[in-house]
Write a structure and sequence with these properties.
Length: 300
């Protein structure tokens, strides 16, 4: 199939390459000409602007958007819609908020432009391993792009999960679960590291756990790789960002009155990782000193 692809970041460029390797024709656009040239070197047809990209596609057009959630996605969809014709299709493969997705789909429907929301997981490994894709939208629209989805995914790695917004909603919850899993592994390895008298080899233990244990996983394979490169992670600062999906998952849990304490605490732990020193910890130390005369450590 021939599709336009907007956004050539770490995931986007690899997705383009995977599609090209499976025989699809790609017209690629990114904000910088240098990035577009990299896509051209892989076999894509480069576009110098959104206008140029639309002009190089025949109707009914299929355009896949892979840009950061929020303003970038909003502007890209709006600008594309002004250039496209009735019967064309837009696909948002980024991590958009599902509520925004539903609203955008409604606006596109007024122009008879089809829309799919594709929650995409796979990170930088997707080029070789494939991408797990959770797709929302009308089933006939999903069926039209099945060859593209099949090329991007591993076997059984994509599915139509529901109406518009469902794809991004499922991906949001997926990422919330990821927060909790990462936190569980992190705490476990810190406990192991803290037991100084055993002098435990974290790389060896991660490798061991990946053979038959109930907590074996791809994340644990990645932990094994990380500990092999840097046994005590000395080169990495313990500062953890969040890209939004964890916050949205927690907000949705509150909205639906679903208890999600582990996911919620894993999100809060990310916030704590960004503090050089916790003021709340200072308050606790001060209060313990006031009511119990407990010793406090003084600043220099």
């Amino acid at each position: 199939m021939k599709i336009g692809f907007i956004g050539l970041g770490k995931m986007g460029m690899n997705m383009v390459e995977r599609l090209l390797n499976d025989g699809h024709e790609i017209v690629a656009y990114a904000r910088t000409a240098e990035t577009v040239k990299k896509a051209e070197a892989k076999g894509a047809v480069g576009a110098s602007s959104l206008n140029d990209l639309v002009d190089k596609l025949q109707t009914p057009r299929i355009i896949w958007i892979m840009v950061p959630a929020g303003t970038a996605t909003e502007e890209t969809i709006h600008n594309c819609a002004g250039l496209m014709d009735a019967g064309d299709m837009l696909i948002d493969g980024g991590n958009s908020n599902f509520r925004d997705t539903i609203q955008r789909s409604g606006e596109l429907k007024k122009h008879n432009i089809s829309f799919l929301d594709v929650g995409t997981s796979g990170g930088i490994w997707g080029l070789t391993k494939g991408y797990c894709m959770m797709i929302g939208g009308e089933k006939p629209v999903f069926n039209k792009v099945d060859p593209v989805l099949k090329s991007l995914a591993p076997e059984n790695g994509y599915a139509h999960v529901g109406p518009t917004g469902a794809g991004h909603f499922v991906k949001m919850v997926h990422n919330g679960i990821e927060y909790a899993l990462l936190q569980g592994y992190a705490e476990g390895f810190e406990i192991l590291k803290s037991k100084k008298e055993f002098d435990l080899d974290l790389h060896k233990i991660a490798r061991l756990w990946n053979h038959g244990s109930v907590i074996r996983s791809w994340l644990l394979e990645l932990a094994e790789s990380a500990f092999e490169k840097d046994p005590w992670l000395a080169s990495i600062k313990g500062y953890v960002e969040d890209s939004g999906e964890g916050r949205w998952t927690v907000a949705e849990a509150i909205e639906e009155s679903v208890p999600a304490p582990v996911i919620t605490l894993s999100l809060l732990e990310r916030f704590r990782s960004r503090q050089d020193e916790s003021f709340s910890a200072k308050v606790i130390a001060a209060l313990r000193s006031e009511f119990g005369g407990h010793a406090v450590k003084k600043t220099d």
